[in-house]
Amino acid sequence: GDSVTQMEGPVTLSEEAFLTINCTYTATGYPSLFWYVQYPGEGLQLLLKATKADDKGSNKGFEATYRKETTSFHLEKGSVQVSDSAVYFCALRHNTNAGKSTFGDGTTLTVKP
Amino acid sequence: EAGVAQSPRYKIIEKRQSVAFWCNPISGHATLYWYQQILGQGPKLLIQFQNNGVVDDSQLPKDRFSAERLKGVDSTLKIQPAKLEDSAVYLCASSALRDRANGYTFGSGTRLTVV
């Protein structure tokens, strides 16, 4: 079945540092890929998405590129802020299985001033 | 637009008791999902509705969990009887289309503690 593997956390960075959170997936066919962010006490919010190979999703300074050859969708940001501290989830949504999503276990990011 | 509404936000019950969670999706969203998020893990799908019909409930522990979506709008998830391992955040999400290009809109979740 489908699966998503994220780099284990927690990740602690200083403000303005470069961020990379790795995500790889296993799936048949051509799923869409997503990054969600979860702030304390809240539900998940969609951060960015990519629907086909080589697409780049971007939002709020975050970027991720759909790499089919390496089955990866790594999240990057050039300069993190304290307000970026949250849990980040990588997910795929398959065209079969009635459009349900499979999520990774999340990576906790803490940014220190 | 209003987001996905869930209630209650928190619930503490003793094992073997019953509990119910409520979800109101975004207006017009035909697809509704219930996910279970155990601490330190990603969300795991329990059940998916399309309008008021069940599309996927393969991961729902049917001996103790039940869910319904009457009239294709609000949904209720029930656990009876609860076990200690049911302690988790229960997330409701909705989506306008089954198109894989769309992400979900999540509610804030209900945090259940079973003692």
Quick rundown:
The complex is a heterodimer of chains A (113) and B (115). Chain A has 113 residues and is an all-beta fold.
Secondary structure elements and pairings:
The complex is a heterodimer of chains A (113) and B (115).
Chain A: E1 3-6, E2 11-14, E3 19-21, E4 23-26, E5 32-38, E6 44-50, E7 56-59, E8 62-65, E9 75-77, E10 86-93, E11 101-103, E12 107-112
Chain B: E1 5-7, E2 10-13, E3 19-24, E4 31-37, E5 44-50, E6 53-56, E7 65-68, E8 75-79, E9 88-95, E10 105-106, E11 110-114
Parallel strand pairs in B: 2-11
Antiparallel strand pairs in B: 1-3, 3-8, 4-5, 4-9, 5-6, 7-8, 9-10, 9-11
What features would you describe in this structure?
The complex is a heterodimer of chains A (113) and B (115). Chain A is an all-beta fold. Chain A contains no helices and twelve strands. Chain A is globular and about 45 Å long. Chain B is mainly β and 115 residues long. In chain B, β7 (65-68) and β8 (75-79) form a beta hairpin. The relative contact order of chain B is 0.33. At the A-B interface, β5, β6 and β10 of A face β5, β9 and β10 of B.
Provide the descriptors you would attach to this structure in a database record.
heterodimer, A: 113 residues, mainly beta, six-stranded mixed beta sheet, four-stranded antiparallel beta sheet, 12 strands, 0% helix, globular, B: 115 residues, seven-stranded mixed beta sheet
